[in-house]
Amino acid sequence: MSKKGVLTVVSGFSGAGKGTLMKALLKKYDYELSISATTRSPREGEEHGREYFFLTREEFESMIETGKLIEWAEYVGNYYGTPKEYVEQRLNEGKDVILEIEIQGALKVREIFPDALLLFVTPPNITELKSRLVGRGTESMETIMKRLARASEEANFMEHYDYIIVNDDLDECVETTHQVIMNEHYKVSQNKNFIEAITAELKAMKEGAI
Ligand code: 5GP
């Protein structure tokens, strides 16, 4: 029914398993994941143009200045931002686009795209969160503590989101996320064109034109 793509924003505490969730979701279902630009260094196994576009601060600042980003934010000392062109193009093609971004960016997206669907991914509890961050083995304890401090600030913004997705069982989490996004297609706000077409058709019929 809905021809317009749904723009979904996925945020959550660092270590909540958003990345794993996104990979599993994309493997099973047809979503377009926007690739962000960042100034942080690649982690082992990450590739330019796949996980992120890894840029220098100068390159990133030039993207800000030339209006090439929908939103951007600083997170634990680095810039992160969403390239505009890709997202707008895919939405216009009717594709469902997902942005996996932190809270400041998510709230900015909501201002620009009021119909965006905001999902917040959280582990079942904070002990689990810390053990996931430590278990990842990619960051120093100092960075982990910074990320946990940031999580504590971020918790205050959870109520601005539309849905809370608890990432306990991955498969279940994939299905829940997919269902929530699918439901969005039936929202009245997502179907303005359909409503207009039906209304026009009824009017024409009433007037004997068809
Ligand atoms: P990480 O360094 O763990 O890959 O990402 C750190 C945080 O930056 C995560 O919360 C991630 O969702 C967020 N992030 C990634 N890309 C973007 C982006 O384009 N914009 C914003 N605002 N945050 C982003």
Bin the helical content.
Answer: 40-55%
- Highest-level CATH class of the largest domain: Alpha Beta
| Count of alpha and pi helical runs | 8
Overall form: globular
N- and C-termini, Cα separation: 23 Å
List cofactors, ions and other ligands: guanosine-5'-monophosphate
- Which stretches are low in confidence, meaning pLDDT under 50 for 5 or more residues running? none
Strand arrangement, largest sheet? 2-7-1-8-9
Can you say what the CATH homologous superfamily of the largest domain is? P-loop containing nucleotide triphosphate hydrolases
Any idea of the CATH topology of the largest domain?
A: Rossmann fold
| Secondary-structure class | alpha/beta
The count of β-strands is 9
What is the residue-averaged pLDDT? 94
CATH architecture of the largest domain: 3-Layer(aba) Sandwich
Main pleated-sheet profile: 5 strands, parallel
Topology order in helix (H) and strand (E) letters: EHEEEHEEHEHEHHEHH
Query: What proportion of the residues form beta strands (DSSP E)?
Result: 15-25%
Number of domains: 2
- CA gyration radius, whole angstroms: 19 Å
